[in-house]
Amino acid sequence: MSKSNLLFDVQDLAVKYPNGDFALHHVNFTVESPSFMAIIGPNGSGKSTLLKTALGLIRPTRGTIKMMGYDSVRDGHKIQRMVRYVPQRDQIGLNIPMKVKDIALMGRLLKKRPPRFASSKDKEITRQALEKVDMQDFWDRPFPELSGGQRQRVLVARALAGKGSILILDEPLAGTDAESQRLIVDALEDYHKNNDVSIVMVTHDLNPIHRMVKNVLLLKRTVIGIGAPCSIMDVDLLTKVYGPTARIVEYAGHRYCVTHDSGMDRHE
Ligand SMILES: Nc1ncnc2c1ncn2[C@@H]1O[C@H](COP(=O)(O)OP(=O)(O)OP(=O)(O)O)[C@@H](O)[C@H]1O
Ligand SMILES: [Mg+2]
Questions:
Q1: How far is the CA of 203 from the centre of ligand 2 (A)?
Q2: pLDDT attached to residue 251
Q3: What is the pTM of this model?
């Protein structure tokens, strides 16, 4: 189905919002598929903009961005069929009395043609995905009554239950406690290992995911670094992005990165 084995192929990409400055400029990088990829960088560094541009939701001002050989402008609908996307701030209105099952089943239903009915297979796969993040007992509960961390877990389950060879999650760990983080990270790791699926995740903290990340993109409106986690754990690169207070600390055979932005990032 895919046209290329490059998860991302980005050439001279620039994106300017109509009322602002360039959110991205001179962005060039490639990442091979399959990958577990992390995108890091401080607030406003263009991480969400990069993902939305890749999905065809924003038009590049110049240059190109391709996923699996599909161009964001020309092939937007093909990309959207291939990708399951969990946006940073979900648009689900909390005043609409939807149940957890309605939200979680959307992952399967939205890729069907209308009229959209959930088959018993859809329900089974969705229940299994909720089990992965320990939310199966909330099936009939109203979504707005869940805590923030529980909602994040349901949204990750919805992505896991969906179809498409690429999962893109924009800060799925934001606002979650250690237990929710562990459930989400373990579910993603397990899913990546057992399925031929690439995962792209924006995060402010590499620590919970460093053991499975293959490629890290360090972004600050342009590419500051791209490579394996160990090559990004470099004090020159990190101070360029996070300022002079960024430190790399060696302790008990591990390297830790301490930044104001992310707290501690560990690398073995
Ligand atoms: N719809 C918009 N209109 C105008 N400017 C925007 C819009 N969305 C984002 N921007 C600007 O583009 C820049 C990059 O924003 P973006 O949301 O991509 O950053 P980010 O790296 O995802 O940040 P965060 O870590 O806070 O989520 C910021 O300066 C932001 O103010
Ligand atoms: Mg963002």
A1: 9
A2: 63
A3: 0.90
